[in-house]
Amino acid sequence: MHRTQARTAKGGDGKEKVEEEAVQLRRKIGLLPAISFIVGTVVGSGIFISPKGVLMNSGSVGLSLLVWALSGIISLFGALCFAELGTTFTKSGGQYTYLLELLGPVPAFLRLWADFIFIRPAVIAYGSLAFGRYIVEPFFAPCAAPTVLIKLVGVLGVTFVIAVNSWSVTLTSRIQVFLTAVKMFAVVLIIVPGLIALGKGKTENFQNDLEAELLTLTKLPLAFYNGLYAYGGWFYLNCVTEEVINPNRIIPLAIIFSMVTVTVLYVLINVAYYTVMTPAQLLMSDAVAVTFANQSIQSFAPVIPVLVALSCLGALNGGTFGSPRVLFVAGREGHWPAIFSMIHIRRRTPLPAVLFQFPFAVVMILKGEIYQLLNFASFSRWFFIALSTLGMLIHRYRFPDLPRPFKVPVVITVTFTVVSFFIVGMSLYSDLFNTGCSLALTLSGLPVYYVTIHRPCLPKRFTRTFNYCSKKLQILLEVAQQEVQTY
Q1: Residue 29 DSSP code
Q2: pLDDT band for position 7 (50/70/90)?
Q3: Which residues of 329-362 are buried (b: 16+ CB within 10 A; e: fewer)?
Q4: Structural domain count, the chain
Q5: Quick check: is 24 in a domain?
Q6: Distance (Å) of CA 458 to CA 249, 442, 454, 455, 473
Q7: Minimum mean pLDDT among 198-212, 261-275, 277-291: which range?
Q8: How far is CA 93 from CA 68, 289, 379, in A?
Q9: Residue 118 to residue 374: CA distance in whole angstroms
Q10: Taking a C-beta distance cutoff of 8 angstroms, is the pair 64, 225 a contact?
């Protein structure tokens, strides 16, 4: 039935046909895909490649394990706060939506600006280059792999992820479930040999593991910074609230199960690392999982790089699925060009918003100098997370009787907000240059907001040209505005 015919249908069947034919984002994400998106996005390359930042800054094995556990608890607190936000505000868009509803359009736009100008491109490029490195390096060992080839494979990886997310939400969900299963296999492959060795009495690396004299208070926040970065990604499910089946139930369940599971697995992985490797060996390794495999499971060692590469791909896929929904909502709210609030008329994917990530990511991959960028990108990320939970506290105070399907104890929200602002403050203290650059890039969105949104003063010729190009692009991409309200 054509869409025009469907609109003339009457009765219950007619309404179902209208909804079936209408251009809209569908609710297709159940509990298992939701868990897979969180776990698959959180468990990326970090825990397999270089957990040495926590050990380096904590000073001992025992303290590093404590940091991993506390980082997981802090991340769980943040995820629970976002579960309340996601069930209170039923729009997609994550932090952007919450800042818009709680604190107004300016912080919401600045978060949007920072995320898509430098945070997301850096995160995508990091994951893509890690994927490329672990695909290419085994073919050139023990020599160094060509940088150009690593970047090329990284571009191919992000191209694949963008293509899948453009094609189908269902296919994206299935691939995410598969890649999450693969990385769980990799995690078990590391944990089991480590626990077996621990059971046989290999405990020498844990002797005197809480030596206080090794602790430097100025470095301890940096240890938490590294740990919390490894847990990053728990907020992406909130970006797709309008596509979650029964979000009031699914979002809290998925968040609690995922973050508790990831915390337990991260602690067990580090116990396995320290059982097999000495702290000195771990500090010398840039690819801890590979070093671990070479020492404990040599028969599986060649498989580890492939599993790590697929883990990177899973994190890329999860992030690439969630982030375009932020642009989609921003276009719908008038904070971004309207073309980004459009959906493919057959695929039911936010195609323009998905494709928008690609050129920025490719430029960042080809540039290759992303590690310093990641350091100051984290400043803006945590600053806006802290603002979101602070806004949640203010909203609770102003509207105490507002229905909240899932409500977090206030002590959890206060604790997480204080810790988040502490992280932001410590990053300013420890690395003023990078965080200053991050702050400057974030604030560069202010003139853009006031010139294009608050009081538009763009030349009419520019506006006409832009609108003409948007219409042509809409025809080329076969996209249209959403026809059914999904929030």
Answers
A1: B
A2: very low
A3: bbbbbebbbebbbbbbbeebbbbbbbbbbbebbb
A4: 1
A5: no
A6: 45, 22, 12, 9, 21
A7: 198-212
A8: 29, 34, 20
A9: 9
A10: no
**Are 307 and 182 a contacting pair, CB within 8 Å?**
yes
Answer yes or no: is 9 within a domain: no
CATH of the domain at 263: 1.20.1740.10
Instruction: Report the phi/psi class of residue 104: left, alpha or beta, with left for phi > 0 and alpha for psi in -120 to 50.
Output: left
DSSP designation for 116: I
Taking the complete model, does pTM exceed 0.70, yes or no?
A: yes
Give 49-102 pLDDT, tens digit per residue. 667 778 877 778 888 888 889 989 999 999 999 999 999 998 888 899 999 999
Q: In DSSP terms, which residues pair with 479 in a beta bridge?
A: 344
Tell whether 129 is covered by a domain.
yes
Residue 336, domain extent: 29-481
Query: In the structure encoding, which two tokens stand for residue 462, read together?
Result: 């520019």
Do 84 and 326 meet the contact criterion of CB atoms below 8 Å apart? Answer: no
Nearest Cα to Cα of residue 231 among 29, 38, 37: 38
CB 138 within 8 A of CB 305: yes
Residue type, 126: Y
Assigned token pair, 95: 């932090």
* 261 in any annotated domain: yes
Question: Which pLDDT band, with edges at 50, 70 and 90, does 9 fall under?
Answer: very low
DSSP annotation of 142 reads T
Cβ-based neighbour number of residue 416 at 10 Å: 26
Match 């979101």 to its residue by tokens.
388
Q: What's the count of helices (H) and strands (E) in the chain, helices before strands?
A: 22, 2
Distance between CA atoms of residues 197 and 239, nearest Å: 42
- Say how far apart CA 26 and CA 91 lie, in whole Å: 13
Q: What's the rounded Cα separation, in Å, for the pair 12 and 6?
A: 12
State CA 486 to chain mean position distance: 23
Write down the H helix ranges in 141-278: 147-167, 169-199, 220-230, 247-276
Question: Does the bond joining 51 to the residue before it have cis omega, within 30 degrees of 0?
Answer: no
